[in-house]
Amino acid sequence: MKEHGIATKCVHAGYTAKNGEPIALPIVQSTTYKYDSSDAMGKLFDLEADGYFYTRLANPTNDAVAAKIAALEGGVAGVLTSSGQAANLFAVLNLCAAGDHVVSSTAIYGGTFNLFNVTLRRMGIAFTFVSPDCSDEELEAAFRENTKAVFGETLSNPSLNVFDIERFAAAAHRHGVPLIVDNTFPTPVNCRPFEFGADIVTHSTTKYMDGHATQVGGVIVDSGNFDWTQNDKFPGLTTPDDSYHGITYTERFGKAAFITKCVAQLMRDLGSIPSPHNAFLLNLGLETLPLRMKKHCENAMAVARFLEKNPNVSWVSYPGLEGDAEYAKAMKYMPNGTSGVISFGVRGGRAAATTFMDALRLCNIVTHVADCRTCVLHPASTTHRQLSDRQLEEAGVKPDLIRLSVGLEDVEDIIGDLAQALEAAAK
Ligand code: PLP
Fold this sequence. Notes:
Elements: H1 6-12, H2 38-45, H3 60-73, E1 77-81, H4 84-93, E2 101-105, H5 110-122, E3 126-130, H6 136-142, E4 147-153, H7 165-174, E5 179-182, H8 187-190, E6 200-204, E7 218-222, H9 235-238, H10 249-253, H11 257-270, H12 276-287, H13 289-309, E8 313-317, H14 327-333, E9 341-346, H15 349-359, E10 364-365, E11 375-377, H16 389-394, E12 401-405, H17 411-426
Residues 83-85, 109, 111-112, 153, 157, 182, 184, 204, 206, 216, 218 line the site of pyridoxal-5'-phosphate (PLP).
């Protein structure tokens, strides 16, 4: 049978109701599972039999949703995490220990940058940050003997840089390491990184996948394509794990080695699982993801075109606009649309941008993005308010920058609200 399309997978993948079973994914809100004998449970602990014993390691609701997202990305296996932060943390920790090194794009979410540059650095993992537009020489020079992975964001938050997946995957593979990409903004509806050579995909499912601002979550998906045994860089996967009955993950689990290790080791020791109820809420969002992404992109394109023409707007960044610096890469990696997120400048700088924000009536001032409601943020007066205009420029956040996440309202209403607030800012 022909492989199902993405909309069909969004509705059906991961859970099929059998005769007389509930059609909606059941919430298995139980921490533990009962067995008739110690021996039956022992086989689960030895990973010799399939089954559930404790929800920190696995839960049927969580597993069904992880399997759905793995199917959407075209991967072999996935695991849900309690946040997007945990997904990126675990993706790196599953490969790196103290003394190891990662090459990362600079165009990544601030929380991920902080996780890498401060917290993981403190734990002994080194990072070299390279501009996504760096020269081939600069990229090559970033690799070291102890490099274990390359990391980037397919569409970066908030700079909206489209990551050249093929180029970075080729560089990673030349050095015998995998490319990990955070695919939160485009979602697999608009971009499927495995088709361009990425090996591991992560998401903050808190964003479009949920889309209704009801749960914080993350996911890691493995393509199954990376050969961990090609060199001796990944002993955690290719040599016996003394903490898990001497299992060698690549020998025992083949293409599922990466995700099995992530669950058996990292989830066991560090936790960070979502509640099954959150996985259920995430699944409701996933069921309508293709419809919502299409509408987010249509609305954002109309809003971007309106902003481009507005005299009170100094600049607009939206990779879907023909004149945008990222347009050519957007057409290659996400031809059906990028996301609903736009950034633009209010003419008149920081003060005018603040007046604009205060005049908005429909758009919501929140730190969130990728929601059914239009969300708007002025970093210079909120998240970055302690910085001077000069420090803001240095951080790549212009004082007049507005991050606008276009929602699912009637686009005339969104544009009407923006138009009246831009007029107020010009007075
Ligand atoms: N990755 C990206 C691209 C994000 O935008 C975010 C949050 O905004 C995260 C990761 C972190 O996700 P979470 O807030 O779910 O921990």
